Amino acid sequence: MAKTVNLATINWLFVCGLAFCLGGVVVLNLMPLSADCICPLKKSGFQNSEALQSVTQPPFDMPEHKLAILVPFRDRFEELLQFVPNITRFLQKQRVVHHIFVLNQVDRYRFNRASLINVGFRFTRDVYDYIAMHDVDLLPLNEDLHYEYPSDLGPLHIAAPELHPKYHYETFVGGILLVRREHFEEMNGMSNKYWGWGLEDDEFYVRIRDAGLQVTRPHNIKTGINNTFNHIHNRYHRKRDTQKCFNQKEVTRKRDRETGLSTLEYKISKIHQLSIDGITITVLNILLECNLNNTPWCDCSGIAAAAAAEEPIK
Ligand code: UDP
Ligand code: MN
To answer: Candidates 73, 201, 242: which one to mutate for ligand 1, based on the most atoms within 8 Å of Cβ?
Structure first.
């Protein structure tokens, strides 16, 4: 009898122990990221954090260079589902150590690609020594496009005008641009004045030139404007926000010597680790701040325009 009780007790203990362990695993998985995580990446944190390692495992412990893929983003989920596996496979072949950061603009202002890139840079600069400003809808097709660490001459423009399906002017630096950390800092990042579509990349070109840097582009590419990239952008479904209000037109035509990394104002409200087809990416929910006196065109809707018009002129 005593023997039976002992066996039953042991069985129960085993079952309870197993249930406790399984419960623990479930709770740990459901636990949200602590609010403490909403701060820039730090070197020590990165090395221990499995979540921030791309599925591209470095072939060595300390890779020479690390690339942060910064994707300005709002409401482009279908494109993201295509982009993530695509670019990951592409960069794995090149053994480029990288991680994808989706810069998800969650405030109610107009889209601001350049400020989002500034936020992404500030978040990743302690760990990554170069960035790719990368449109979510531009997929590289030609494997000779190497996402390598840019030379000391200046940024490496992957989406070169002779290769991009849509933009063909010589000073074009949009689409996909790789920039060394120290170069981006030297230029004070990008301007924060560009709300809505366009011109922020052209202003950045002038920053590159003014810093004494030059744009380099891939060599010996045998493909052309029709078969180097897949631009998954339907202009009817994904309309560009080309509206201009207040004095946006005049101001955004000029080089901005005032704003950039040093004047950037934002909050990161949440950080998500998201898995797409088994690839872990990081999504930053970003609330940009807009100074309505300096750039009232961050909101062209009637309400803000009317409020601004009622402001007494100082
Ligand atoms: N973008 C976005 N949501 C928007 C507008 C733009 O996510 O509402 C991002 C996206 O990464 C896109 C990039 O900004 O690829 C550049 O915008 P767009 O594709 O409209 O510019 P294009 O180069 O096609 O003129
Ligand atoms: Mn596009």
So the answer is: 73
